[in-house]
Amino acid sequence: MGMPAGIGVVDLMLQIPSDDFRRKYEFLKPLLLDEESRKQFEFPAQYMFRDIPKTPQSEDYVRVTLEEMDRHGIERAMIGVGIGDADARRALKTHADRFFGSFEVNPNLGMEGVRALVQAYEELGIKAATAFPAGLCPQVPINDKKFYPLYAKCIELDIPICVCAGVPGPRVPMAPQRVELIDEVCWYFPELKFVTRHGCEPWTDLAVKLMLKWPNLYYSTTAFAPKYYPKDIIDFANTRGADKVIFSGYFPAGLTYDRIFSELPDVPFRDHVWPKFLRENAKRVFKLP
Question: What is the phi/psi pair of residue 251, to 5°?
């Protein structure tokens, strides 16, 4: 049968475009030391993505985003929201049937960061927290105790946390995102729903071992074009991991939906995996109506 049509895809990583998308990466500047990253790249991992999506200027980027979603059969998408992010807040308010929110946490802020997460949950109805350990300044490893109050609060709020794992694309040190660090977190917080982002490479075989070990550990396909999905992950989804691997795009940061959905049908998932991968796993883990 292959990839089914008209299934109502759920995307776990989408950003509302803007006139100046580069400003979204200002937070990385203190960590970037090479001249290309600091002065030439429009996107911190530009050396990895040859054709960065170009979104035409618009007075209504929420409408532009919805048109892209409709064109590719995306029913709902998770967008990052900040307390002052006007477009994202408007998208959540006016199109609650299409968007659900996530909130980027910063463990360096201590209890202020915990309170910000709670505020986003109460005011914006977020469905998840997100974290970029190697992109924090200073960096904070996945298993660092600074993260623990945030992990505990995610359990209390009953929301997953989506965390970048593996070698980061931007030219920053990788140590905070070594995949073995996830093991301690899953051990100490067995109730925490932990979803990896950005590939877990080059430790995808270890990611599979940990997903077999820990019931609440999941893998999302953010930042990977489908033709480059790791073989370890595809094999896992086709065998014991059909409930563990979840579709996630990367529009408009590094991939167009045209590319993603032109390559997806060639991914060799078994028939029973596709509905879970494209929709069902996300709805269950993120408690979507």
Answer: -95, 135
